[in-house]
Amino acid sequence: MNAFDVIVIGSGIGGSSAAAAAARAGARVALLEKSASFGGSAALSAGMLWTAPDVESYRRRIPNGEIALGERVVADFADAIAEVRATGARVADEPTRDIMTFGIGYSTDIHAILAACRDAVTAAGGVIVSEAPVRELLVDAGRVVGAVAQTPNGPVEYRAPSVVLATGGFGRDPELLTRYVGPQSDNLLMRSHVGNVGDGLRMACAAGAGGSRSMASYYGHLVPWPLEEFEPEHYLPYSQYYSGSTVFVNMRGERFVDETLGDEIINQVVVGQPDSRGVLIFDEHVHLTEARSEPFPGLGATDRFETAKAAGGLWASADTIDGLVAQVAEWGVDAATLSATLAAYRGAAEAGGGWASGAPVAADARAPQTAPFHALMVQPSITFTFGGVPISTRGEALDPDGAPIPGLYAAGADIGGLSNVGYAGGLAPAYITGRWAGRSAARAALNETSQERTHA
Ligand SMILES: Cc1cc2nc3c(=O)[nH]c(=O)nc-3n(C[C@H](O)[C@H](O)[C@H](O)COP(=O)(O)OP(=O)(O)OC[C@H]3O[C@@H](n4cnc5c(N)ncnc54)[C@H](O)[C@@H]3O)c2cc1C
User: Fold this and answer.
1) Helix pair 427-455, 13-24: axis angle to 10 deg
2) CA-CA distance, 66 to 390, in Å (whole number)?
3) At 456, is the pLDDT very low, low, confident or very high (cuts 50, 70, 90)?
4) Taking burial as the number of CB atoms within 10 A of a residue's CB, which of 42, 129, 218, 306 is the most buried?
5) Is 248 exposed, middle or buried (0-12, 13-18, 19+ CB in 10 A)?
6) pLDDT tops 90 at residue 455
7) Average pLDDT over residues 175-191
8) Which secondary-structure segment (H or E) carries 189?
9) Enclosing H/E stretch for 431
């Protein structure tokens, strides 16, 4: 048997941060990772640590988010950035603004941050174990007291007074997606680390946790349809970040969402449309500007339309709107409806906003007007789920009555409610909630150990 102060399950940014925070607080930590390598989706990411710039912006963008979590994440952001900077990992001097339309963040070397967290664990006498998936918690009289890892050599029991779940959410599990997100969500293209299949949520529920708000919403981006391949190296270049500057129609040729809400939001809305896909219509101006620029440092400047074409995506280009509509009609989109939609959109955009074909047109919307005109068929993807284990701002996992489950903590994409349709960032909230969980887990474990010594 292996005895520790704190067990952390999952070595992405949430788990690594929790493990480092617990180690820095004096705990002996076991960090257990399912895969052969460490870092989860964080290691595949663009490394931008960002969130809402202030509480008012958080409320505006995510009116149905858990405000207590939003307030604390925003309040802790500057200190978290300072902590990361102090490890020596690269952090940009100046912030990037208007990330995903409203956020503030810093470009970082995410691999160096993950490595610094692991160093903190081993420096404090902890262990880091790969190929050790955990699917069972040890519970004694209602208290979580450890976990069982399935190692290549068979099951191994790890015992500790505190256990942190940080398994990256349930974005890759078709059953949980169908149950919480909805009927077509199991067809979403998966844009995340392969390990993120909801183990944390399942274990938390088995230990008595409730579900959070926003169980049906998630983060992801529109990607070309169909795709010949979709591997981790494609996740960033295939994402159509510029879709907010296009006219987005469904397979009937109708609009169904205000595109300027941003790619990560319209990506969620298209799932409920016919065939769960749609067509981006844009002009050469958008192609030469937003489709080619780097949305923020780390995402890479590439021609996303050309990359989508090379990936096998269905596309069309024409010198006139009518010529484009005729080509898109060959994909099964009704030509008359699409023409009417584009005309209505142009009228509303020229009038400074309004309504066109079933959805609002924003005041700053710009209709396609510079030839050639382009169309790209796209489908939604999922990076991680916004719902999960409800937590306190101390990182404690909560039961349906809101009471902490003794010995159980959660962090990162395993927690739920911070983002809800609107997105408050992935890496920084995971790092920050990891600190909450790691510090609380260490405090509780070390208190318990000192009480045991006092009574001995
Ligand atoms: C291509 C891409 C780009 C991104 N870019 C950004 C960005 O620039 N900025 C941003 O804010 N967010 C970004 N994100 C999102 C960000 O990566 C996630 O929000 C973040 O990694 C979540 O952290 P996490 O620790 O909860 O999960 P992860 O980082 O995914 O880590 C979860 C880990 O848990 C492990 N695990 C799962 N189950 C078990 C188990 N049963 N036992 C043991 N281990 C287990 C997994 O194998 C994995 O290693 C991006 C994501 C992707 C895919």
Assistant:
1) 40
2) 10
3) low
4) 218
5) buried
6) no
7) 95
8) strand 189-190
9) helix 427-455
Q: Are 165 and 99 contacting, i.e. CB atoms less than 8 angstroms apart?
A: no
Ramachandran region, residue 395 (left: φ > 0; alpha: ψ -120 to 50; beta: rest) = left
What is the model's pTM? 0.97
Distance CA 204, CA 76 (A): 25
Tally Cβ neighbours within 10 Å of residue 188. Answer: 23
- Domains of the chain, by residue range, sit at 2-215+384-455, 221-379
* 261 Cα–ligand 1 center, Å: 24
At 452 the pLDDT is: 73
Residues lining ligand 1, CB < 6 A?
A: 9-15, 32-35, 40-42, 44-48, 50, 133-135, 166-168, 191-193, 195-196, 199, 235-236, 298, 383-384, 412-413, 425-428, 430
Rounded to whole angstroms, the Cα distance separating 389 from 98 reads 29
Q: How far apart are CA 70 and CA 67, in angstroms?
A: 5
Cα(197) to centroid of ligand 1, in Å? 11
Report strand pairing: 404-410 vs 162-165. parallel
Q: Candidates 7, 13, 45, 73: which one to mutate for ligand 1, based on the most atoms within 8 Å of Cβ?
A: 45
Tokens of 317: 């280009």
Please, which residues have CB within 8 angstroms of residue 138's CB and are 6 or more apart in sequence? 144, 145, 146, 147, 148, 157, 159
CATH class, range 221-379: alpha beta
CA dist., res. 163 & res. 112, Å (int):
25
Indicate which atom in ligand 1 lies nearest the CA of residue 429: 11
Strand partners, 382: 190
Terminal CA-CA length for the chain: 21
Check: CB of residue 118 under 8 Å from CB of residue 130. no
Task: Extract the tokens encoding 52.
Answer: 């809402």
